[in-house]
Design a protein that fits this description.
The protein has about 270 residues and is mainly beta. Helix content is about 15%, strand content about 45%.
């Protein structure tokens, strides 16, 4: 019986050693059943052959070195019924060499003592794709309770979301633009936009940025064309802003810029 047990024990040990040898071979990459590729021998070759990094691996996408916040401002006013409106705007400039995609951001409002006055998220940006040298604008008009100042004592702390663009920067031409003071305050803009692409678009944004004599943005207005814009079509648009600060009038607007582009998403 002891001999039989010894033989069985010896066979078990031999089987264990064989199994260990099989595992070692698998780690060396010779196991034909492995699904994980072995990139240890070709990584340096791929990097040396690349002329520029792709958007997925570019350090600019995560580090944010391809953009700069070049302007920010807060303006507040109280209307005739005692509601305080706050206009917040911050400008992002593409300082890199590739197109950038911007998604919604956020910001905090502080007073000069550093006390938190408000914190806002899901702030819209216009436009959402910008080429090198172009600017985009995070913009919001909100009501603010328990505040009656003019915004001069407030500081905006912006947070933006910027990545290298994987989608095209599509812009549509805008013509016949006229801007006038609105009947009930604010500004009224009219014009026409044309779909010069080869794709029918179901949703199109038209955005107007107003600048003062120092070329600083003082307001923004936009409309969304939801009836669709087929390729080759030209349609009219109209915007009316009601919550712009009362200081933003035709007299204070020195220039403007209009963006028209289809709704696009990047994931």
């Amino acid at each position: 019986m002891k001999k039989i047990l010894l033989v069985i024990f010896t066979l078990v040990m031999l089987f264990s050693v064989a199994a260990c040898g099989s595992t070692t071979t698998s780690n060396d990459g010779s196991n034909p059943g492995s699904t994980a590729p072995d990139n240890s021998n070709n990584t340096s070759t791929q990097n040396s052959d690349a002329t520029e990094p792709t958007a997925e691996v570019s350090p600019e996408s995560e580090g944010g070195s391809a953009h700069e916040i070049t302007y920010s401002n807060v303006t507040a006013y109280t209307n005739s019924i005692g509601t305080t409106w706050v206009q917040t705007i911050f400008e992002v400039t593409n300082t890199g060499s590739v197109d950038l995609y911007l998604s919604s951001g956020s910001y905090d409002l502080e007073n000069h003592d550093g006390s938190l006055i408000a914190s806002k998220t899901m702030v819209s940006v216009f436009p959402d794709v910008i080429s090198p040298g172009e600017k985009a604008y995070y913009y919001e008009e909100i009501t603010l309770d328990n505040y009656t100042g003019d915004g001069s004592d407030l500081v905006v702390l912006p947070r933006v979301s910027v990545k290298d663009a994987k989608i095209d920067n599509v812009r549509f031409p805008v013509t016949d633009v006229t801007i006038s003071d609105g009947s009930y305050g604010g500004l009224k803009t009219m014009g026409r936009v044309e779909n010069t692409s080869s794709n029918d678009e179901s949703i199109v944004y038209v955005v107007i940025v107003f600048y003062d004599a120092n070329n600083q943005p003082i307001g923004l207005d936009f409309t969304i064309l939801t009836d669709g814009l087929a390729t080759g079509d030209k349609v009219g648009f109209e915007t009316s802003s009601f919550s712009l600060p009362p200081t933003v009038t035709m007299e204070s607007v020195s220039s403007y810029e209009v963006f028209a582009y289809p709704q696009q998403y990047q994931f």
